[in-house]
Amino acid sequence: MRSQLQQPMLANSQTEPNEEMRVLSNTFTQEGEELCLMLSGWIRRNLIYDKSFAVKRTRTASEIFISKRVTGCIDVALVFLSLMKERGIAASFIETINKQWLEEKTPKKMIEGHIFCRIEINNKEIIYDPMNSTIATEERFFLQSKEYVKILEGKDSWAIGLMTNDDLKKYLILNYQISFS
Fold it and tell me: Quick one: 8 exposed, middle or buried, by C-beta within 10 A (0-12, 13-18, 19+)?
C-alpha cells in the first residue's frame, strides 16, 4: 500500500501552503488521528460552506484558505492535504464515485462523488474523510451508508488530471461509459 502515497507530498501548485497556513498547521500539537480530527474540525469551523461559489477544482488550497469559502469536499480536502503536508505527513487525494450511481446506465445530470484522503500515521495507512471527520483503516469508502468506488488517486485534483468538473465528466464518459443529459 505504501507505494500509493507520495513521500512526503511534494510541492504542487494546488496544494502548496501559504505562510498563514504554515503557521496555523504548526500551532496544532496533536499527532496521528487526533491531528486529522483537529485540522478538519478547524476547517469546518473557520471556512464557510458556500455552494453558490461555483469554482470547484479551479483554485489552489491557498486561494481557498484566503477566500474563507469552500464549495464542498474537494476544497476541504485540498486545504486539509496542504495543512498535513506542512506537517510532513504523507497523504493523497482520492476521487471516488457513488457505486450505485456508477453502475446505473441511465443518463446523469450531476456527478455523485466524494473526496477521501489516504494518510500514513504511525506506520499504517488510514482512509480519512476530512469533510465529515471519519476514519477507516481499510480501503472502503462509505458516506451516509452509500458505498463509493475509488476512480483516481494522487497528490491533488490537478495531479490526477482533473482541472475542472468537465474533466471528471470526460473521464467518466471515456472510462465508465457514463452519459450525461
Answer: middle
β-pairing verdict for 48-49 and 69-70: parallel
Whether residue 69 contacts residue 47, with contact meaning beta carbons closer than 8 Å, is answered with: yes
The amino acid present at 142, given as its one-letter code, is F
The CA-based angle 103-109-112, given to 5 degrees, is 50
CA 58 to chain centroid, in Å, comes to 14
pLDDT at 109: 87
Measure the CA angle with vertex 157, ends 113 and 106; round to 5°: 30
Written in H, E and C, the secondary structure of 32-65 is: HHHHHHHHHHHHHHHCEECCCCCCCCCCCHHHHH
Nearest to 43 by CA among 85, 79, 88: 79
H helix runs in 6-145, sequence order: 19-25, 32-46, 61-67, 73-86, 99-103
Question: Amino acid identity of 22?
Answer: R
For residues 173 and 105, what is the distance between their CA atoms, to the nearest angstrom? 11
Closest CA to 41 of 119, 137, 129, 122: 129
pLDDT tens for residues 49-88?
Answer: 998 777 889 999 999 999 999 999 999 999 999 999 999 9
Please name the residue that has the C-alpha cell 476544497.
75
